[in-house]
Specification:
The chain is of the alpha/beta class and 284 residues long. 37% of the residues lie in helices and 22% in strands. Bound molecules: adenosine-5'-diphosphate and magnesium ion (MG).
Length: 284
């Protein structure tokens, strides 16, 4: 836990978001009265089956979508206030599922510099930020390469570096590992954890329960509403509720429940595979 973690970085008040197509067709309500406060420096995982409103919520957090009703403050700025849209976008960076849709330049370092250049930052400072961001994602040696030559995981790391170089307070990752192989997925997860340790507020939308176990808060969405909200152990200990919205619990939680049925006293706070391994090793 970081200092001043009781300060909100994002405040969502009674958010309703409706997609409108043509005038005649009724609007689709994707977010139905969500209120949520995200503390500075926290790591929140957002779960929910397809269509539950996760991506719509994410896009509302950095002003890509503007609330139909309700209000969202990011770093104190109202996302609906045109005068502060760049403050909102700079404060809350977004990383999407498909890195190919996020890379814009033919050279890796130009890509990472793109965001800060658009913020009008001085070239020497941009250079420093690009160096640091590439180092953060372990892609320094690839700076002169073409993004098209890289693997999916490497491209996603470049996309993350591009967001990091804008020095956001908060990064919203919308299923960043969904298109990656297990190795790429692990690399992205380590980077997300390191960014969080450096003090960045992380919101991670994922359908991998193991990834959610790494967060300090888990929010489950269902039909545009918040269905469960708590620490990973609070949420995942409610296995039946979690399964009722078509989600699984992390493997370690499932194993812990089965071991308890066999009379082994497994502590409630075991959520991650690493914690389970440590617990089992005591029995050697
Ligand atoms: P998730 O990310 O959890 O899968 P989404 O936020 O993408 O959910 O979608 C929430 C709801 O909004 C779904 O019913 C979906 O069909 C609808 N929706 C998403 N994008 C659009 C769009 N551009 N136009 C109309 N409806 C949309
Ligand atoms: Mg989505």
């Amino acid at each position: 836990m970081k200092e001043n973690n009781m300060e909100p970085i994002i405040k969502i008040e009674n958010l309703i978001f409706e997609y409108r197509k043509e005038e005649e067709t009724p609007p689709v309500r994707a977010i139905d009265n969500v209120s949520l406060t995200i503390e500075k420096g926290s790591f929140t995982a957002v779960l929910g089956k397809n269509g539950s409103g996760k991506s719509t919520l994410a896009k509302n957090l950095n002003g890509l979508l503007i609330p139909t009703e309700g209000v969202i403050y990011v770093n104190g700025y109202d996302t609906a206030d045109d005068n502060h849209i760049w403050d909102v976008r700079q404060s809350a960076g977004m990383v999407f599922q498909n890195p190919d849709n996020q890379l814009v330049s033919a050279i890796v370092e130009d890509d990472v510099a793109f965001g800060p250049e658009n913020l009008g930052i001085d070239p020497a400072e941009i250079r420093r930020r690009v160096d640091k961001a590439l180092e953060d994602v372990n892609m320094g040696p690839f700076r002169g390469k073409s993004p098209h030559m890289l693997s999916g995981g490497q491209k996603q790391r470049i996309a993350i570096a591009g967001v990091v170089a804008m020095k956001p307070s908060c990064i919203i990752f919308d299923e960043p590992t969904a298109m990656l192989d297990p190795k790429g997925r692990n690399e992205i997860m380590s980077i997300i954890k390191e960014l969080h340790e450096e003090g960045i507020t992380v919101i991670l939308i994922t359908h991998f329960m193991e990834e959610a176990a790494a967060a300090d808060r888990v929010v489950i969405m269902d039909e545009g509403r918040i269905f469960l909200d708590g620490t990973p152990s609070e949420v995942f200990s409610q296995g039946d509720k979690v399964r009722s919205v078509n989600l699984d619990v992390p493997l370690a939680v499932e194993l812990a429940a089965r071991l308890r049925e066999k009379g082994i006293d497994v502590p409630q706070n075991i959520i991650s595979t690493e914690e389970m391994v440590e617990f089992i090793c005591q029995y050697e």
